[in-house]
C-alpha cells in the first residue's frame, strides 16, 4: 500500500515538475540558510556553557549615582576581593581577573603569549580541566604558572611540562616561574581566553594599588555557597561599601547626586557570568562580547525565511491543486475516501520536503565557508550531526511538512466531484482569505527587510563618512609587541624613521584610535576634586608630537614639546574638559589631577571622537605621565604613497625587532573595525531581504499561474471583445498590488519602531526619512508587478480561440 502511494506520488510530482522544482528551490534555499543561521545562533548561545558552575558564577560591578547620571562599571580595586572573602561567609570562591601579555622564554625558544592574572579560586570556579597538576595546589607558590596544552607543546615539545622553569619578561625584568599545571586547550566558545595563568600578585598594578580603594583596574568574579540568594548580596554589602567608600560617598552628596531607591549613592552588585558574552552595557567584560541584537536579528531572519518558504509551499501546492481538480473528482467517483486522498497528497508533500531537506543540507555544506567569512561565524559542518541539531532538523522537517502539507491537501479534498467533472471550478476554488493573508505576510516581511536594509546602510555610510576631528587617512597605528618596553620602542622607531622622507611625524600613545589588528582598545577614567566639585576625565598618556601626528586642531595654547622640561607634568585638554573646568582663561592654570603634583594646562584642542560614534565626546586629558605605558606607536606619512610607506615602516620594524610581530594598521581601518557588528547586521538584512524577495516572488508567480488558469476563458472573451494586452495585465495585477500595498502599510510602522530603537544606540545617528518607506514600498510593488507580468503577458498574448476551445 505504502509502495503504491509512493509510486503514484512520484508520477504526480514528475507530471508537475515545473511547480515542484519551484517548491524544491524555495524550500532547499530556506533549509540551507536556516541551518547555517540556527547553528550560528546556537553557537553564540553556547558560550561558556561548558563551565560546570556556570549558573552559580557572578560578576561584581559597581553602580555610582552621579549628578550627570548613573554609571555602571565592572572595574574593581585590588583590595576588594580579599576583603569580601574575609568579611562574608556566604562567599565560597572569589577571584580577581586581569588580562595581560608577556614574552616567555625556555632555552632558545621565545613566545609571545596571553597572560591571565588570577587568584587561586579561579580554577575552582571555572571549568578549565587540568591535564597535569592538582587544582588545589597549582597556585600554592607565588611563582607557580599554569599553561595550556598547546603552549606546553610549543615550549617543551613532547617533554613533561610539570616543574619546568620558564622565564617571563614582565615589564623590564625577567622573572622565573615553575610550571605547576597544564590545562586542556580553551574551547572556541569561551569568553575567557588565555595561554598562561599566573598569580594576581604579578599584575602590574598590584603593588601600587594594594591599599587603594579608588584604583579600579580589573574584573572580579564570585561564587556563593549553595542555597544563597545572590539578589540579597547588594543589601548585605551596603555597610561594607559605606565603610570603604565613605570619602567617595561624601563627595557625591556634596555635589548633589541623588541616591537610588535603596538610598545608595554608590553600591556593589552582581550579574550572572552566563550573560556576559552578550553586550550588557558594561565597557569591560571578558572576551569580545557580541550584540544580542545581532544574534536575535539572525534568529528572526531565519524564522522569516522559513515562514516565507512555508507560505510559498502552500501557495504553490494550491496552484498545482487547480490543475489536479479533475484527478480528485475521478478518484472520488471511483471510491477514494477522504483519508486515502489525504494520505496520497501528504505523501507527495513528505517527498518534496524530504528532498528539499537533503538538497538544503548539501547546499549548506557548499556555502558554509563564504557564510562564515561574511558573518564572522565559527561554526563547523560537524555541528550539523550533533544530536541536538539533528533533533532540531527533524522537528523543523515535521513542522514544515505538517503546516505546508495540511491546507493544500484539505482544500483539494473539499472539491465537489460533480462540479469539477463538469468543468465548473468557479465555485470550488475561490481565492479565499487565507491565500491573501499568506501573501500579505510574505510581502510584509519582505518590505520590512528592505526598509531595515536601507536604514542600516544609511547609518553605516554616515558613520564611515562623518569627520572625527583627527587625521585617520594617513596615520599608521603600530601596537607595541608583548615583552617590549613602549617608551624604548617609540624612541627606537623615532630614530629609525627620522631619515625616511615619507614620514611626517612619529608619536606614542597609551590608547589606540578605534580597534587595531591586535583587537584591543584601552580607556582610563580619572576623577579628582577641584574647587569643591568632582571633575571626571578620560586620561590619555601621549608623547611629543601627538597633536601634530593626528592633526588635532589647537584652539588655544600649544602641544607638548621636548624644549619644555616641565611638560612631563603638564596637560593638554579638549574643549569638553575645558567646559568641565569652567571654560575661560585655562592656559597656565594648574589642576590637581594627582596628589603628587598639580598639572598645568598648556593647550586646548578642538573636540574629537576618540571613542566610537556610539558615544558622545567626553572630557579627555592628554598627559605624559610615565605611570601609563606607551602601547601604540603612531606614524604619520605623506599622502599619495601609503602602500609604499607602509612597506618601508614594516621593514624598519622588522630590522629593529626581528622576533616581534608587526600588526600595524591605518586609523581609518581601525575606526571602521569599531562598527563590525553594524556591518554584520547590514549584511544580514541584505541577505535576508534578497532571499525573502526571491522566495516571495516564486510564490507570487505560482499564484499568478493559478489565477490565469482560473480566468483563461475570461481573458479569451475580453480579447475577442477588444481588450488590449496592457489592460489585461493591469486587470490581473491590480488585486496583487493592493495586497502588496496593504503589506507595506503593516511593515512601515513596525520597521520604523525597530530601526528607531536600534539607532538609539548611537550618539551620532541619521534621522529616518519618509522616502525610505516610499522607496521600499515601490520596490516591493515593482518586483511583484514584474513577477506577475511574466504570466499575465503570456496569457494576454495567447490566441483567444485556443482559450475558448479548451473546454
Automatic annotation (TrEMBL):
Subcellular location: Cell membrane
MacB-like periplasmic core domain ranges (all copies): 21-238, 499-643
Membrane topology annotation: Multi-pass membrane protein
Residue intervals passing through the bilayer: 21-43, 293-316, 345-368, 388-413, 434-457, 684-709, 736-755, 767-790
InterPro entries named among the record's database cross-references: ABC3_permease_C, MacB_PCD, Macrolide_Exporter_MacB
Highest taxon, organism lineage: Bacteria
Ranges for domain ABC3 transporter permease C-terminal: 300-415, 689-796
Keywords: Cell membrane, Membrane, Transmembrane, Transmembrane helix
Protein name: ABC transport system permease protein
